[in-house]
Write a structure and sequence with these properties.
Order of helices and strands: HEEHHHHEEHEEHEEHEEEEEEEHH
Radius of gyration: 22 Å
Structural class: alpha/beta
Strand content: 15-25%
Number of helices: 10
Number of strands: 15
Protein backbone atom coordinates (compact mmCIF):
# COMPACT_ATOMS: atom_id res chain seq x y z
CA UNK A 1 0.00 0.00 0.00
CA UNK A 2 1.31 3.43 -0.85
CA UNK A 3 1.82 6.25 1.60
CA UNK A 4 -1.32 8.01 2.82
CA UNK A 5 -1.79 11.06 4.99
CA UNK A 6 -4.64 11.48 7.45
CA UNK A 7 -5.81 15.09 7.24
CA UNK A 8 -6.32 17.13 10.38
CA UNK A 9 -9.83 18.01 9.21
CA UNK A 10 -10.99 14.39 9.77
CA UNK A 11 -9.76 13.47 13.28
CA UNK A 12 -9.89 9.68 13.03
CA UNK A 13 -7.53 9.39 15.99
CA UNK A 14 -10.48 10.31 18.21
CA UNK A 15 -12.09 7.00 17.47
CA UNK A 16 -9.19 4.88 18.68
CA UNK A 17 -8.02 3.81 15.22
CA UNK A 18 -4.38 2.84 14.74
CA UNK A 19 -2.22 4.78 12.31
CA UNK A 20 -2.39 1.93 9.79
CA UNK A 21 -6.17 1.65 10.19
CA UNK A 22 -6.49 5.39 9.67
CA UNK A 23 -4.43 5.13 6.52
CA UNK A 24 -6.56 2.23 5.29
CA UNK A 25 -9.79 4.12 5.97
CA UNK A 26 -8.51 7.33 4.39
CA UNK A 27 -7.40 5.42 1.32
CA UNK A 28 -10.89 3.97 0.97
CA UNK A 29 -12.40 7.42 1.36
CA UNK A 30 -10.20 8.80 -1.40
CA UNK A 31 -10.84 5.90 -3.78
CA UNK A 32 -13.83 5.59 -6.09
CA UNK A 33 -16.02 2.67 -5.04
CA UNK A 34 -15.58 -0.46 -7.09
CA UNK A 35 -19.04 -1.50 -8.23
CA UNK A 36 -19.59 -5.15 -9.12
CA UNK A 37 -20.69 -5.52 -12.70
CA UNK A 38 -23.82 -7.40 -11.73
CA UNK A 39 -25.00 -4.55 -9.48
CA UNK A 40 -26.04 -2.29 -12.37
CA UNK A 41 -27.30 -2.72 -15.90
CA UNK A 42 -25.71 0.15 -17.85
CA UNK A 43 -26.44 1.12 -21.43
CA UNK A 44 -23.24 1.43 -23.44
CA UNK A 45 -23.00 4.71 -25.32
CA UNK A 46 -19.42 5.04 -26.51
CA UNK A 47 -17.36 5.43 -23.36
CA UNK A 48 -20.37 6.63 -21.36
CA UNK A 49 -22.52 4.36 -19.27
CA UNK A 50 -26.05 5.55 -18.62
CA UNK A 51 -27.94 3.97 -15.77
CA UNK A 52 -31.22 2.44 -16.80
CA UNK A 53 -33.25 3.46 -13.80
CA UNK A 54 -33.40 5.68 -10.78
CA UNK A 55 -33.02 2.63 -8.53
CA UNK A 56 -29.74 1.74 -10.23
CA UNK A 57 -28.57 5.27 -9.51
CA UNK A 58 -29.57 4.92 -5.86
CA UNK A 59 -27.70 1.63 -5.63
CA UNK A 60 -24.54 3.14 -7.10
CA UNK A 61 -24.84 6.11 -4.73
CA UNK A 62 -25.19 3.77 -1.78
CA UNK A 63 -22.09 1.79 -2.81
CA UNK A 64 -20.13 5.02 -3.09
CA UNK A 65 -21.41 6.06 0.34
CA UNK A 66 -20.34 2.72 1.75
CA UNK A 67 -16.78 3.30 0.55
CA UNK A 68 -16.76 6.67 2.33
CA UNK A 69 -18.15 5.20 5.55
CA UNK A 70 -21.54 6.88 5.09
CA UNK A 71 -23.73 3.77 5.09
CA UNK A 72 -23.23 0.10 5.75
CA UNK A 73 -26.06 -1.54 3.83
CA UNK A 74 -27.58 -1.45 0.37
CA UNK A 75 -30.80 -3.08 1.43
CA UNK A 76 -32.78 0.16 1.34
CA UNK A 77 -31.67 0.94 -2.23
CA UNK A 78 -32.02 -2.59 -3.54
CA UNK A 79 -35.41 -3.32 -2.03
CA UNK A 80 -37.00 -0.22 -0.54
CA UNK A 81 -40.00 -2.18 0.70
CA UNK A 82 -37.84 -3.85 3.33
CA UNK A 83 -36.27 -2.48 6.47
CA UNK A 84 -34.44 -5.49 7.75
CA UNK A 85 -30.86 -4.25 7.46
CA UNK A 86 -29.03 -3.17 10.59
CA UNK A 87 -28.36 0.58 10.77
CA UNK A 88 -24.79 1.83 10.31
CA UNK A 89 -22.64 1.53 13.41
CA UNK A 90 -20.53 4.25 14.98
CA UNK A 91 -16.74 4.18 14.36
CA UNK A 92 -16.33 2.09 17.52
CA UNK A 93 -19.02 -0.33 16.32
CA UNK A 94 -21.72 0.76 18.77
CA UNK A 95 -25.33 0.25 17.73
CA UNK A 96 -27.10 3.64 17.18
CA UNK A 97 -30.16 2.26 18.97
CA UNK A 98 -28.11 1.61 22.10
CA UNK A 99 -26.41 4.99 21.79
CA UNK A 100 -29.68 6.89 21.37
CA UNK A 101 -30.80 5.62 24.79
CA UNK A 102 -28.03 7.77 26.28
CA UNK A 103 -29.17 10.81 24.27
CA UNK A 104 -32.74 10.35 25.45
CA UNK A 105 -32.06 11.16 29.08
CA UNK A 106 -31.02 14.55 30.51
CA UNK A 107 -30.01 16.07 27.15
CA UNK A 108 -31.74 18.96 25.41
CA UNK A 109 -31.55 19.69 21.71
CA UNK A 110 -29.43 22.73 22.62
CA UNK A 111 -26.87 20.59 24.47
CA UNK A 112 -26.57 18.35 21.41
CA UNK A 113 -26.34 21.36 19.10
CA UNK A 114 -23.42 22.66 21.16
CA UNK A 115 -21.78 19.24 20.84
CA UNK A 116 -22.22 19.35 17.07
CA UNK A 117 -20.58 22.78 17.01
CA UNK A 118 -17.60 21.32 18.87
CA UNK A 119 -17.04 18.56 16.30
CA UNK A 120 -17.23 20.92 13.32
CA UNK A 121 -20.83 20.34 12.22
CA UNK A 122 -22.14 23.78 13.22
CA UNK A 123 -25.51 24.55 11.56
CA UNK A 124 -25.15 21.70 9.03
CA UNK A 125 -27.53 19.41 10.86
CA UNK A 126 -30.16 21.83 12.17
CA UNK A 127 -33.50 21.21 10.49
CA UNK A 128 -35.54 24.20 9.31
CA UNK A 129 -36.83 25.96 12.46
CA UNK A 130 -40.32 25.87 10.98
CA UNK A 131 -40.34 22.12 11.67
CA UNK A 132 -41.58 22.02 15.24
CA UNK A 133 -43.15 19.62 17.73
CA UNK A 134 -46.93 19.83 17.92
CA UNK A 135 -46.98 20.20 21.69
CA UNK A 136 -44.70 21.54 24.42
CA UNK A 137 -42.95 18.91 26.50
CA UNK A 138 -42.30 16.54 23.61
CA UNK A 139 -38.74 15.22 23.58
CA UNK A 140 -37.17 12.29 21.78
CA UNK A 141 -33.96 11.00 20.24
CA UNK A 142 -33.63 7.93 18.06
CA UNK A 143 -32.02 6.46 14.93
CA UNK A 144 -33.67 7.54 11.69
CA UNK A 145 -35.85 5.32 9.54
CA UNK A 146 -36.37 7.41 6.43
CA UNK A 147 -39.20 7.78 3.91
CA UNK A 148 -38.97 9.60 0.58
CA UNK A 149 -42.35 10.99 -0.47
CA UNK A 150 -42.86 12.99 -3.70
CA UNK A 151 -45.74 15.05 -5.08
CA UNK A 152 -48.12 13.10 -7.31
CA UNK A 153 -48.74 14.15 -10.92
CA UNK A 154 -52.11 12.43 -11.19
CA UNK A 155 -55.42 12.58 -9.36
CA UNK A 156 -57.66 10.02 -7.80
CA UNK A 157 -60.73 9.17 -9.90
CA UNK A 158 -64.13 10.37 -8.77
CA UNK A 159 -65.63 7.66 -6.57
CA UNK A 160 -69.12 6.56 -5.62
CA UNK A 161 -70.50 6.72 -2.10
CA UNK A 162 -70.01 3.01 -1.56
CA UNK A 163 -66.27 3.40 -2.15
CA UNK A 164 -65.77 6.19 0.41
CA UNK A 165 -63.62 3.98 2.63
CA UNK A 166 -61.57 2.53 -0.20
CA UNK A 167 -59.56 5.58 -1.29
CA UNK A 168 -56.28 4.56 0.33
CA UNK A 169 -56.56 1.01 -0.99
CA UNK A 170 -57.37 2.34 -4.46
CA UNK A 171 -54.32 4.63 -4.37
CA UNK A 172 -52.17 1.67 -3.40
CA UNK A 173 -53.58 -0.34 -6.29
CA UNK A 174 -52.89 2.58 -8.64
CA UNK A 175 -49.20 2.39 -7.69
CA UNK A 176 -49.13 5.32 -5.31
CA UNK A 177 -47.20 3.38 -2.66
CA UNK A 178 -43.94 2.04 -4.08
CA UNK A 179 -42.50 0.91 -0.75
CA UNK A 180 -43.57 -0.40 2.64
CA UNK A 181 -42.50 1.21 5.88
CA UNK A 182 -41.19 -1.10 8.58
CA UNK A 183 -40.06 0.29 11.92
CA UNK A 184 -38.16 -0.77 15.00
CA UNK A 185 -38.85 0.26 18.62
CA UNK A 186 -36.94 3.41 19.45
CA UNK A 187 -36.54 4.68 15.88
CA UNK A 188 -37.55 8.10 14.56
CA UNK A 189 -39.52 8.05 11.32
CA UNK A 190 -38.26 10.86 9.06
CA UNK A 191 -40.58 11.75 6.19
CA UNK A 192 -39.17 13.88 3.38
CA UNK A 193 -41.97 15.30 1.20
CA UNK A 194 -39.91 17.10 -1.46
CA UNK A 195 -41.98 20.25 -1.43
CA UNK A 196 -45.36 18.53 -1.79
CA UNK A 197 -48.37 20.78 -1.41
CA UNK A 198 -50.70 20.50 1.55
CA UNK A 199 -51.13 16.83 2.42
CA UNK A 200 -51.59 15.42 5.89
CA UNK A 201 -49.38 12.39 5.42
CA UNK A 202 -49.44 11.84 9.17
CA UNK A 203 -52.75 11.94 11.04
CA UNK A 204 -54.27 10.77 14.30
CA UNK A 205 -54.66 7.17 13.09
CA UNK A 206 -51.37 6.26 11.41
CA UNK A 207 -49.32 8.25 13.95
CA UNK A 208 -50.97 6.25 16.73
CA UNK A 209 -50.01 3.07 14.89
CA UNK A 210 -46.41 4.28 15.17
CA UNK A 211 -46.90 4.83 18.91
CA UNK A 212 -48.17 1.27 19.20
CA UNK A 213 -45.02 0.10 17.41
CA UNK A 214 -42.96 1.99 20.05
CA UNK A 215 -41.52 4.47 17.59
CA UNK A 216 -39.74 7.27 19.49
CA UNK A 217 -41.01 10.02 17.22
CA UNK A 218 -42.01 11.22 13.76
CA UNK A 219 -40.42 14.15 11.90
CA UNK A 220 -41.64 15.53 8.58
CA UNK A 221 -40.91 18.60 6.52
CA UNK A 222 -44.52 18.36 5.35
CA UNK A 223 -47.87 18.54 7.08
CA UNK A 224 -49.83 16.69 9.74
CA UNK A 225 -53.62 16.56 10.09
CA UNK A 226 -56.05 15.68 12.90
CA UNK A 227 -53.66 17.63 15.09
CA UNK A 228 -56.14 18.17 17.94
CA UNK A 229 -56.28 14.41 18.35
CA UNK A 230 -52.52 13.91 17.90
CA UNK A 231 -51.92 16.41 20.70
CA UNK A 232 -54.52 14.76 22.95
CA UNK A 233 -52.92 11.38 22.22
CA UNK A 234 -49.47 12.83 23.01
CA UNK A 235 -48.27 11.66 19.63
CA UNK A 236 -44.54 12.53 19.32
CA UNK A 237 -44.76 14.32 15.97
CA UNK A 238 -42.87 17.33 14.61
CA UNK A 239 -43.97 18.90 11.33
CA UNK A 240 -43.72 22.05 9.23
CA UNK A 241 -47.42 22.80 9.18
CA UNK A 242 -50.97 21.69 9.79
CA UNK A 243 -52.81 20.19 6.82
CA UNK A 244 -56.32 18.98 6.07
CA UNK A 245 -56.09 16.54 3.18
CA UNK A 246 -55.45 12.82 2.73
CA UNK A 247 -52.68 11.07 0.79
CA UNK A 248 -54.43 9.62 -2.31
CA UNK A 249 -53.96 11.77 -5.39
CA UNK A 250 -51.47 14.07 -3.68
CA UNK A 251 -48.23 12.26 -2.84
CA UNK A 252 -46.52 8.96 -3.57
CA UNK A 253 -44.20 7.03 -1.26
CA UNK A 254 -41.15 6.19 -3.37
CA UNK A 255 -38.52 4.74 -1.02
CA UNK A 256 -37.78 3.83 2.57
CA UNK A 257 -34.39 3.67 4.29
CA UNK A 258 -32.49 5.77 1.77
CA UNK A 259 -30.65 9.05 2.39
CA UNK A 260 -33.13 11.94 2.24
CA UNK A 261 -33.14 15.70 2.54
CA UNK A 262 -35.51 16.87 5.26
CA UNK A 263 -35.74 20.46 6.41
CA UNK A 264 -32.64 21.33 4.40
CA UNK A 265 -30.53 18.64 6.08
CA UNK A 266 -29.15 15.28 4.92
CA UNK A 267 -30.54 12.44 7.04
CA UNK A 268 -29.40 8.85 6.51
CA UNK A 269 -30.82 5.68 8.01
CA UNK A 270 -29.23 5.28 11.43
CA UNK A 271 -28.35 8.94 12.00
CA UNK A 272 -29.68 10.02 15.40
CA UNK A 273 -32.56 12.51 15.21
CA UNK A 274 -33.60 14.57 18.22
CA UNK A 275 -36.50 16.89 18.97
CA UNK A 276 -37.78 19.12 21.73
CA UNK A 277 -39.58 22.47 21.90
CA UNK A 278 -36.49 24.22 20.50
CA UNK A 279 -36.67 22.26 17.22
CA UNK A 280 -35.16 19.26 15.47
CA UNK A 281 -31.53 18.26 15.00
CA UNK A 282 -29.75 15.29 13.43
CA UNK A 283 -26.49 13.80 14.70
CA UNK A 284 -24.51 12.04 11.96
CA UNK A 285 -23.75 8.57 13.27
CA UNK A 286 -20.01 8.85 12.65
CA UNK A 287 -19.68 11.70 15.19
CA UNK A 288 -22.44 10.60 17.57
CA UNK A 289 -20.16 9.31 20.33
CA UNK A 290 -18.08 12.49 20.42
CA UNK A 291 -21.24 14.63 20.38
CA UNK A 292 -22.74 12.61 23.23
CA UNK A 293 -19.64 13.01 25.38
CA UNK A 294 -19.43 16.78 24.83
CA UNK A 295 -23.18 17.34 25.19
CA UNK A 296 -23.22 15.37 28.45
CA UNK A 297 -20.53 17.56 29.98
CA UNK A 298 -22.32 20.72 28.85
CA UNK A 299 -25.65 19.50 30.24
CA UNK A 300 -24.26 18.58 33.67
CA UNK A 301 -22.43 21.91 33.96
CA UNK A 302 -25.59 23.81 32.99
CA UNK A 303 -27.67 21.94 35.58
CA UNK A 304 -25.11 22.74 38.28
CA UNK A 305 -25.12 26.44 37.40
CA UNK A 306 -28.89 26.69 37.31
CA UNK A 307 -29.21 24.80 40.60
CA UNK A 308 -27.18 27.59 42.24
CA UNK A 309 -29.55 30.16 40.80
CA UNK A 310 -32.54 28.13 42.04
CA UNK A 311 -31.08 28.14 45.54
CA UNK A 312 -30.29 31.85 45.45
CA UNK A 313 -33.83 32.66 44.28
CA UNK A 314 -35.48 30.24 46.69
CA UNK A 315 -36.97 28.10 43.92
CA UNK A 316 -37.88 24.49 44.56
CA UNK A 317 -35.43 22.26 42.60
CA UNK A 318 -36.89 20.21 39.76
CA UNK A 319 -35.60 17.53 37.40
CA UNK A 320 -34.01 20.11 35.08
CA UNK A 321 -31.43 20.96 37.76
CA UNK A 322 -30.84 17.45 39.08
CA UNK A 323 -27.20 17.49 38.06
CA UNK A 324 -26.33 14.60 40.38
CA UNK A 325 -28.65 12.22 38.49
CA UNK A 326 -27.29 13.47 35.16
CA UNK A 327 -23.70 13.05 36.33
CA UNK A 328 -24.45 9.49 37.43
CA UNK A 329 -26.08 8.69 34.08
CA UNK A 330 -23.05 10.02 32.19
CA UNK A 331 -20.37 9.04 34.73
CA UNK A 332 -18.36 7.12 32.14
CA UNK A 333 -18.21 10.22 29.92
CA UNK A 334 -17.36 12.96 32.43
Amino acid sequence: MGHCQVGASFPLHRYGLSKQARCDRTSRMNTTAEIPSNDIAPIQTGKTQLLQSRRDFLKVSAVAGLAAGAVTSLTGAEAPAANTANPPATPSGKDPYALSVRFNKFLRVTDVTDGLDAVGRADLTLLDPLIRPLWMGMRFFGPAVTMRVVPANRRMPVIERKDALKQHAMWDQMGGMHAKLEVKPGCVVVTSTNGARECGYWGSNNSMAMQAAQVAGIVTDGYARDTDEIIMQKGPLACRGVGRTIIPGRVELMDVNVPVGCGGVLIRPGDIVGCDWDGVVVVPVEVAEDVLCIAARIAVDDKKARRRWYEKLGKQPDETVDWEAAADHFKDLL
